Amino acid sequence: MTITIDHRTTSAVPTTPVHAVGAGSAGELDATVTDRRRAAIVAGVGYVALFVLGIFANFVVREGLVVADDPTATATNITESLGLFRIGLFSFLAVFLIDVVVAWALYVLFRSQHRDLSLVSAWFRIVYTVFMGVAAVFFFQALNLYESPYLAEAMSEAQRNAQALAGLELFNSAWLIGLAAFGVHLVVMGALVTRSTEAPRVLGYLMMLAGLAYVIDTSANTLLADYDTYAGAFLAMVAIPSVIAEGWFGLWLLTKAGKPAVR
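RE: above sequence
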């Protein structure tokens, strides 16, 4: 295309109005910020739900009803509180489902920062979630052993109680393996947080520390024959940084993550 003006030939290059480009770019940026903010809120709400459900299911139901190495006492506690046991099982199932949503939301929030690390973090959380679902199967099996009329006729009460307790202990084992994957997830997520311009860098380091504590605890359970002797120390090593880091992270997700930068 050419235009002749005063006998001079000038190439004419079609242009797009500047205001149109600006409007489109701003619209895309706004959409990205909105998506990240929504993902942060979803993850933050999920963290609050996981915190409440996890404490109830683990500390109130599992630790409140299950007596280590005592099948009879465990059977008595559970059969006298079957409603509570069922609610605890439902809570574990809810944790299983919510964790999938949280893994997705965190991936959406951090993928623009580092897609590969965000994907790795999500996959490790999903692996943990799968083990959480497998562990819940043993809760179902224990409930079946306590309630099934067929099993009551086929097995003695002592046999059913022993198998139920063995299933509840297998729940612990499956969950423990899953927590190692969760620890890796926290380490990678902590690394993403330290790279973020939105979050306090200290938060990322605390998350990495909590993740390492999970991995060390699972390794100690595997390698130490006398782990029970040091169980209290390992519990404190995991619980203190985990509660602080994950509580702070959940609060940051709800209040600040994914918001546009203030200029």
